Give the backbone structure.
Amino acid sequence: MKAERTDSIIFSFLCLAICLNLILPGEIYITTRYIANLLIFLLFFIKVSQLLQNDKNKLSLYLPKNRLVGAFLLVGVVSTWGSTYYHHSRGYVWLFLTYFLLYFLLQNLRLGEGEAALFIRVLLFLTVAIVLYGFYQYLFNFEIIQKTVEKLDYLSPEQKQMILRRIFSGRIFSTFALPTTLAGYVGMVIPLNIYCLAISLKRAGAFILYLIPLIFSLVALMMTASFGGLVSLVGGVILTYLVVFYKRDKLRSFLLRVLIVLIILAVGLWAIGRFRGFNLWDLSAGENPIRLRLLNWQVGYDMGKDHWLKGVGLGNYGTLFPLYKVPGSQDTQFAHNSLVQLFSEAGLPGVVVLLLVIIPLLWRMVSNARRSYHQESQWERRLLPLGLLTSVFVFLLHNLIEINLYFPSLGLLGIFLLALGARCGVSGGDDKMRSWSLSERGKKLLLWLLVGVFIFYAGWMTRDYIGQIYIDAAQRVAQEGDYELALKRASAAIRFDPTNSEYYHIQAGFIMSGTPQLPQVDEAIAAYQKAITLDPFTPHLHYELSKLYVMRGMPLRGFLEAKEAERLYPLSSTYRQFAREMEENLKR
């Protein structure tokens, strides 16, 4: 098979992984996340194998520059070395590795001119289906969706509670976990939609066809009532206009256009405030997203300031959030700002290396867009880099307000568009070709090394997945009252994934079901002790262990665990009151 044909197939499967994660987002459907990660790693293995087979005595690659490799290694080391909860960090290392491999693949694929444009068209009509599902949610008052979510066994109770809160808010979120995620998605798609409209101006049928997803996307953006999605879209358009079209001698014309866009933004924000029942500029409103984000950023800054060198480990902003929580903030797992969250989780070095990665890539994209628009004669070639640049600007701006990088759905799409934009207009890829002379033995050794890494990667992911299957099955049979079988399945889940503290917490609950005797209490205590060893900063684990110590007749140890829960969540009235009661019992 020709190399170009193989690259086309690989690109098609990459597009499939992106679309799958939009229809069934990996942040909700754990299976999808595993499938996408494994598929991208497998495609990476196939591509490198193809290069080893085709090139005689050498291996030629467009490798990301040293800053990219160094960035990933640094973030990976920081997130696992001394992490406050290793299980969370490992999961996000896998996710960021997937981003890295996706970027690498797209830089080394030889693609035809129409393949990127074809993916954009597929994305537009996928958007129609996703938005239609959102309209379906709204028109039926979410009743059917509510019943469906309550029956989904593969969702954890926390995930169900989160989705049900979104249902009762009346804001559409379609296939995604949050209205803001849907808003971020349509915000990234709208510039690509405008590109398709622009290149079809002379074809009435095609123009109307592309107008449909644009109308759907704009309506969906307003129905999400997400200020972040609207601000990111408007900001992305202004930034693109500024870096590509701005000229000093046309300052008045430029300011007039910006003023018009800002007026549209102000009207949109006013409409969002009316929909949600408060003025967005009223920072005293409890549900005001601007106020809540400012508080989340303060927590992230305080956390990062205390751990500025190595952070608390990737994915652990939410783990330590109760310890740093400020009055008025709501419990959350994410800072709603990727830079702030990375500062808290990977320290100052993590933020610095991320900026060293993003800024040169953005500069390349801006140069490509300007060069293409002013020099290319073909209309499609002029506008494609422009549309990709605007979408990437929207993605990056939304990362400063929302969760994109930490959600596989938007994260994979954003990195995909970033990689396409970085190579669009540059023949041969983003970086200079580098070649290494390899003997046949060296090729075989490299190939076997890749096979070993892939088996290790696939094995680890499979263990996590099977553990999740067992724990979901355990919770399902527990609902039916069969706690003995539930305990067996929970123990099986722990054997497959012994680093997940939540499994031990669930196991302890099954042990204590019914009328527990002293041996069962001791088993539950051991389960909680193991969970705390893995995740010492989660207050409810200490709280539950404290109650077990009281049942076991060990009030002093119970009091110490109660005080630890209070220390880890100082603003919790429940833990504070419980610690006082334990202290009073000791004094009697």
User: Anything to note?
Assistant: Residues 440-479 form the longest helix (40 residues). The CA atoms of residues 559 and 581 lie 9 Å apart.
